[in-house]
Amino acid sequence: MNALPPAQTEVFSALLDDLRLERKPDVRTGEIDTSYYTDENWFKQEHQQLFAAAPLVIGHSSMLQKPGDHFVHDHSGKPILVVRGKDDQIRAFLNVCRHRGVRLSNADGVANTPSFVCPYHNWIYALDGTLSKVPLQSECFPDLDKSCHGLKELPLGECEGLLFVSGDPDASINLQQQLGPIQDDFKAFRLGDHVFFRESVTTKKANWKLIIEAFLDGYHVVRLHRKTVGPMFLDGVAKSQRSGDNIMSVVARQEFERALELDRNEWDLRRHASCAFFLFPNTTIIVHPDYISYLTLFPTAANETICVHGCLIAEAPRDEKAAAHWERAYNIIEEGVFQAEDLFVCEQAQIGMNSGANDKLLFGSYESSILDFHHIIAEKMGPYTPASG
Ligand code: FES
Ligand SMILES: [Fe+2]
Q1: Where would I find the beta strands (DSSP E) of the chain?
Q2: What separation in angstroms does the CA of 92 have from each of 70, 156, 330?
Q3: Domain 6-53+181-388: assigned CATH number
């Protein structure tokens, strides 16, 4: 019996019914002010209300294989240090020395260390963040209580290997509540058994919401991607479903029609469709036939966004040939599809938006999950009004 991902199976099943009964999607259209994507004041409010304390995906636990493995993450605007301790626990800290604030680690990618030594005056921190040594302490800081000067810890949560960190030390993380049934889908896709292969970081001149929209859009797939992955998909056979603050979506591949003749336990969601999970506010997990992508967005201005695209594979490459295979598979999506097509049109749309040609953007029935995304934002921030600019 196949362990089918529960929530995605529901969407897949509904999509098959649509196909069988030749049902068209309910007509659902909407329009959004273009200034929603260019207004710096609104952007500051978004950053404060949606990002500052939110648990954001910053990597996968497989990046940190052994005690002392660590990486830094600066894209959210907070200097974050993530490390696996001697007790095997992964913790996140502000990457800031408690003496006079110097940055502790400048690791490029994943590095290993037995402890963190501040370069300025060599205060030393253990892997669990405790301050273990202060040079010349009895002369310089006779009254200093080391136990009160450990690194400032940040809330961290893990779901199937995905590491979520909040930049606010006082925030709390409840992934059970935040992810709901999507956790079961991640389990079924064995996300927790995957291993980190590589990621790329690029800065795009586009509002972060435009980029989220590109991955919720069932209308563009066979058109924008006609020279790459588009021919693998059926046109307009896509469905999505809101789940709490997240959105699950399924886009049918050419093989999808064959699923009509199969029993439920023979469905292979990865072969018959492309499944994606938008995790509010800034992450999209895309399940490709052979690996899993995570795309996390860290906006820096109304018209600028840092994009991190990571690749998770089922097992670590055994040799160079296997590594070269995964490198090619990753680049087809990263360079050929994301950069050259999806992110390219997002930057083009931002230029169009800045031109003032359109007061509104229009969304049709196959773009309706984008409207769900904007409803989620409005539930948290209230409706956008151009007057905020
Ligand atoms: S600033 Fe870090 S030891 Fe002085
Ligand atoms: Fe796309």
Answers
A1: 30-33, 56-60, 69-73, 80-84, 90-94, 111-112, 116-117, 124-125, 131-133, 153-154, 156-159, 162-165, 195-204, 233-243, 246-253, 273-279, 283-287, 292-301, 304-313, 360-363
A2: 10, 6, 28
A3: 3.90.380.10
Residues in the chain: 389
Residue range 75-90, pLDDT digits in tens: 999 999 999 999 999 9
CA of 104 to the centre of ligand 1 (A): 9
201-219 average pLDDT score = 96
Q: Select from 118, 125, 134, 149 the residue to mutate for testing ligand 1; criterion: most ligand atoms less than 8 Å from CB.
A: 118
Read off the amino acid at residue 326: W
CB 123 less than 6 A from any atom of ligand 1: yes
Q: Taking residues 33-59, what's their average pLDDT? A: 97
Q: Any alpha helices (H) in 109-258, and if so which ranges? A: 137-140, 175-179, 182-188, 208-214, 221-224
Q: What is the pLDDT of residues 211-255, one digit of tens each?
A: 999 999 999 999 999 999 999 999 988 888 999 999 999 999 999
Coil vs helix vs strand at 30? strand
Q: How many CA atoms lie within 13 A of 385 on its CB side?
A: 3
Q: pTM score, two decimals? A: 0.95
Instruction: Fold for 56-165, please state it.
Output: Rieske Iron-sulfur Protein (2.102.10)
Rounded to an integer, what distance in angstroms lies between the CA atom of residue 150 and that of residue 128?
9
Q: Name the one residue in this structure whose structure tokens are 């969304």.
A: 363
pLDDT of 5 higher than 80: no
pLDDT of residue 288: 93
